[in-house]
Amino acid sequence: MDISEYLPMFLAEAREHLQELNLAVVRIEETPDDRETVDEIFRIAHSMKGMSATMGFGAMAALTHQMEDVFELLRQRRGGLDREAIDVLLASLDAMEANVDAIESTNEEALDPTELIERLKGLVGRRSVEQHLERQGGAADPEEVLARAEGRTLHVVARLADDCAMAGVRALMVLQAAGDHGTILGSTPTEDGLEQFDGRIVEVYVGSETTEPAALEASVRDVTDVVEVTVEVERDHAVAPAAAEPAAAPDRPAAADAPKTPARKSSATVRIDADRLDQLMHYMGELVVHRTHLEALVDQADVPGLSQAMQDLTRTSQALQAMVMQVRMIPVESVLMRFPRLVRDLSSKLGKQVELVLTGKETELDRTVIEALGDPIVHLVRNSLDHGLESPEQRVAAGKPPTGRLEISARHAGGNVVITVSDDGRGIDPAKVAAKAVERGLITQEAAASIGVPEAIELLFTAGFSTAEQTSDISGRGVGMDAVRSIIRELGGEVEMQSEPGAGSTVTIRLPLTLAIMAALQVETRGMPFAIPLDRVERTLHLTDHSVRSVAGRRMLVLRDSAIPLLDAAEALGYEPVDEHDYAVIVHGTQGRVALAVQRLVGQRELVTRPLPPDVGERAAVSGGAVLSDGSIALIVDCDAIFGPAAPRVRLAA
After folding, report:
1. Which element (helix H / strand E) includes 518?
2. Among 359, 373, 458, 343, which Cα is nearest to 410's?
3. CB neighbours (10 Å) of residue 96?
4. Is 387 a catalytic residue?
5. Catalytic: which of 13, 68, 217, 571?
6. Does residue 107 carry a catalytic annotation?
7. Would you call 234 a catalytic residue per the annotation?
8. pLDDT tens per residue across span 525-546
9. Which residue in the list 46, 237, 379, 581 is annotated as catalytic?
10. How far apart are CA 560 and CA 636, in angstroms?
């Protein structure tokens, strides 16, 4: 059987299983007697071993099989596993993650499990002969197996989903799940026939004195793609252990006619290639552009019924657009799942005690945003552990509990997602930051005397700045906070930081739900179109209705309650300045509010965003482009970069 077509499915499921195992192992280290987690570990490990063996990845299957022996200890003893065992298990998971990456790149394994298997064997010790035979699924002499199972045999019939793409893998997983409850006496298909199996009915005979049918049924039902299970207690032993077709008792209906337990509903989800989702989003964007163009034409036409038809088309296309956007949404949990393991490893290396709290894991974000979000949060977590949280001794001396708290939370806020990373550590020391800034020539000694927390925070976001005394593999390489701000701005978001010396720090990331289609205010200046993200716009106004004054050589727009900087939008975006303006758009960014003077307000638009060449963001305060209905390109204004140190430095050609 050609299994190459199943490789993408194997890779996707393997990564999910490895991530779940990482979480479960860290969780069992914290709560050793959590039986639910123990059962979850066994279920995932069985799936991993079965998938790997069927796909022909023997090294991965062998390593997972040996890990199962260590997992058995969780069932046999209270108090969980010692730290050495947890470290070996996590090292095995790391090796398998690297192996999955290698398989994806070369279709070949790059794993030699010998050393890890020996370390795992050293944790378990030698099994008894009886345990070994039971682990082999009834591979002993038939008479001996039947003697051990004397008195009771359970017959399992499992039906796979009609659209099951890996029948052999799922059948093996059914056998393994059944084997957890006793000795496998016979099955259809047999283990030797799994590779050629492409049916939908799997039958297993299990010898056990103690297993309850309901427990066995629940284990088999948990196997992916199993949609129906029946379990019956047999009173005879007429079944041969390796029978290709297990015989049915005369007084019992055939498997197809067996009494049915309530069938589990078939999976309501399907796996879709990410490229297809991107292509679907592209066509949806094209539809939005064409719809906008058509709306403009309808406004100029005088055809009876055309306006109503246009409204109907708009309503339907907007509903379709919302659905397509929803399809691309992924829970932020896919990013947060990596952090329990990361925090566990780093806190151990640093000799710190850390409680990690994750909230809002169900919050959804666009797939593109999710993929880019991991590295910035890793930077923030590393900084919190290395620079923010103190050692247990330092915390006790400061009147704090020895265990520090690190919280990562996510929530929706209007059309955005807000993610915060906060700790209860030492906070930012302005004096220390100022001293480093002086040392690096960023500020003068005189300026350092007046540096407060807000100014110190802004210095931390300077490219290459770090307060670490020496570089390490944890942090201190001068790429942290600057990299965070750069990546978040590329995603159309903003990042802010607050800190209280001695009490801790909080970094807040605000991101749009999606990068593909955005609501924007379209404006014109110098005859060129620009788009301002609508969630950054506070209000628009006519300049002739307000006073403009010069303060310290800077133009200020005087409002009823305040005065804010007034910038020529063309000049702020890297073009030659304009002499006359009619309107101003007040926007907010990370450093406050600013008014952009423009020549014309076009109106609110839904725009399909497109990335710009990498160097353009360095030359002007723009974060992307959007195709308009007439085919022209509107640059999207970066409201965080139009003032402050990120302002443009060179002119763009008109």
Report:
1. strand 517-525
2. 359
3. 27
4. no
5. 68
6. no
7. no
8. 988 899 998 888 999 999 988 8
9. 46
10. 29
